[in-house]
Amino acid sequence: MRIFWRDRFSLTFALIFPLVFAGAFTLAWEEDDEPPGVAPRLTVVAAGQQGFPEHLVAALNDSGWTADERSLEGALDALGQGDIGGFLLFPAGFGTAIPTGSEARIRVVVSGKDPAETATLEGIARALAGRAQTVMLAVRGARDLATVPDAEQVSAVSRLPPLVSLEVRRTGERRYNPIDFTLPGYLTMFVFFVAALGAGSIVLERETRTLERLVSSGVRAASILAGKFLVAAGKGITQLAVLWMVGVFALSIDLGASPGAVVVVSLLFALASAAFGIMLAAMVNTMRSASSIAMLASLTLAPLGGCWWPLFIAPDWLQAIGRLTPHAWANDAFNRLMVFGASASDVVPNMLTLVAFAVVFGAIALVRFRLSPPT
Amino acid sequence: METYLQAEALAKHFDGVAAVEDVSFVIHTKEIFGLLGPNGAGKTTTIRMLSTILAPDSGDVRIGGHSAVREGDEVRKRIGVCPQELALYPELSAFDNLVFFGRMNGLPGRAAKARARALLAETGLDDRGGEAVKKYSGGMKRRVNIAIALMNRPKLLFLDEPTVGIDPQSRNKIFETVLGLRDEGTTVLYTTHYMEEADRLCDRIGIMDRGRIIAVGTPAELKRQVGDPGKTTLEEVFLRLTGRSLRD
Asked: Which chain A residues are within 8 Å of B105, Cβ to Cβ?
């Protein structure tokens, strides 16, 4: 560890590079200016009905939507051309059915191409139906009490908004901080990178017979292996501690609702990375091959594991390949915790998988580790 | 004379090739024993077996009455090993290197520091002991390499080509150190390619070739095998016994 602290290049590589990369890519993810507030659009076919549909449309507009009223033909035409994914249809008679307490239907017409849009329209329709149901119950109750409400009263009941409340997160809208996923990405990349490159120094010690000298001094081979693992893990944990602190205190990073889980995932990833470095040292014969494989592995596994871009925006096949890397499990856990508000229990599978990676890498290292260079 | 090291029929093979075959010899207490041989003769493999780093395929070594095969821990307490490679940490200072290996040898922190300071003075490095070893000359690094092997005050010191690639002053300092250790009671096993060095330092010499010991004796005894000891050099003995063919 003392050598690590004294080596300025190592410190720069381990601590400064991740911040520079994370900062640069955070800027790239951000937009120059706040985009104009474009409300989500909802196509409604109400056939010019007065009364309740009119109030529903007004309530939707008040809730942040832009209710786009069209004729049925126009809506079907737009649906057919793929301009819209679906629309809400208030059939003829809907407007008069509500005040009289008669049966009424809201129809959801969708192309089915976009499951998310279908689900959204269904949700809105159910919310509107629920509010209409309330109005109708009020009307029926009043009627049962022989008090027939007039149009003004019905209108007043139906105007008990908000009928629908909705929060939309749109790509490019500054509702999240891109550093929340760029910093964890580059942090995992560089923790793994430093651990993998550490294999070279172990191979060098083998080549210069320093490891043999330790054995002839009375140190057991298992102790040397454990020491190398702890030093590698210590470097990773130091990197993580420094970078998370910079992230929290200088870059306003949000660790989410379970910061403890972020810490646990970080520690497990540092252990898995350290075990990989020891495994690599155990498997190669020369320092040159150790450095080359460390470089190749780090630069290949980083993009596959979601270090350069969040895996949740990657295609399914890339996400599937990424699952073969410890990076992906760590980044997925960080994204869930820090971007999507998951709890610690949601990322337990990620934690267990990182433990499994560490155990497998460590077991291979234990079997293959040699103190002497090949003869 | 009391025997301190006894090698009995040592053998080691790598991938079916014999590196060392049926090697037996003894080293007496307070003796500098030279192990000479051309490249690939098996000297380093033999030293690695004697110093418990490498387990022999067959045979055994007794050092100070303990078997290197079965009582490795007891043997390691009694030996110091200086490999021909510079087995030290170049980013650390000489002092830190010495303290580190002293601690690995089981010395308490304060004792390790005191021993490190004493050895830096003995090897003429006390004024630059705080500098990173990577800034040292080749001779200074060689002296640190030897000093590390002395941290645990070994009864038996293995020196594997300790004077390769250094200037005459550093070589002379190493000679003085080795002779001083012998006078203080340390037994030394010394390998080198420099015949005049072996002639000057060693009480007895074993010559290895193709994995076997082919001759053992004092320098005078070995010279007598090929001619007049007063006129024959050790190099002539060496070439007569091992041949003139290249061993690259």
From this structure: 217-218
CA B99 to chain A, closest CA, distance in angstroms equals 13
3-state class of B141 per DSSP? helix
Characterize the bridge pairing of strands B58-63 and B3-14.
Answer: antiparallel
Tell me: pLDDT of A104 over 80. Answer: no
Helix-, strand-, coil-residue percentages of chain B, each rounded to 5: 40, 25, 35
| Residues in CB range of A205: below 8 A, 6 or more apart | A211
Q: Shortest CA distance to A18 belongs to which of A179, A186, A185, A241?
A: A186
Is A36 a residue whose pLDDT tops 70?
no
Q: What DSSP element (H or E) covers B192?
A: none
User: What pTM, to 2 d.p., does this model score?
Assistant: 0.68
Under DSSP, the state recorded for A112 is: S
Cα B4 to Cα B79: distance, rounded to the nearest angstrom = 11
* Most distant CA pair in chain B, distance: 55
Q: Which residues of B touch A212 (CB under 8 A)?
A: 48, 53, 81, 83, 87
pLDDT of residue A163: 43
Q: Give whole-number Cα distances, B112 to A215, A324, B100, B130, B143, in Å.
A: 18, 47, 8, 15, 18
Q: How far is residue B125's CA from residue A239's CA, in Å, rounded to a whole number?
A: 36
For B132, which DSSP code?
B
Element (H, E) at B51: none
Strands (E), chain A: 41-45, 66-69, 86-89, 107-110
Q: Look at the block and give the residue holding tokens 């002991």.
A: B129
Say how far apart CA B53 and CA A371 lie, in whole Å. 9
Residues of B in Cβ contact (< 8 Å) with A2:
92, 96
Q: Give the domains, in start order, of chain A with CATH numbers.
A: 15-30+175-368 (no CATH), 41-159 (3.40.1710)
Q: Are strands B187-191 and B32-36 parallel, antiparallel or unpaired?
A: parallel
DSSP helix/strand/coil, B88: coil
The set of residues, in sequence order, having a beta carbon less than 8 Å from that of B51 and lying 6+ positions away, is: A216, B68, B79, B81, B158
ipTM of this model?
A: 0.86
Cα separation, B18 vs B45, in Å, equals 11
Q: Tell me the nearest-neighbour CA distance from A331 into chain B, angstroms.
A: 35
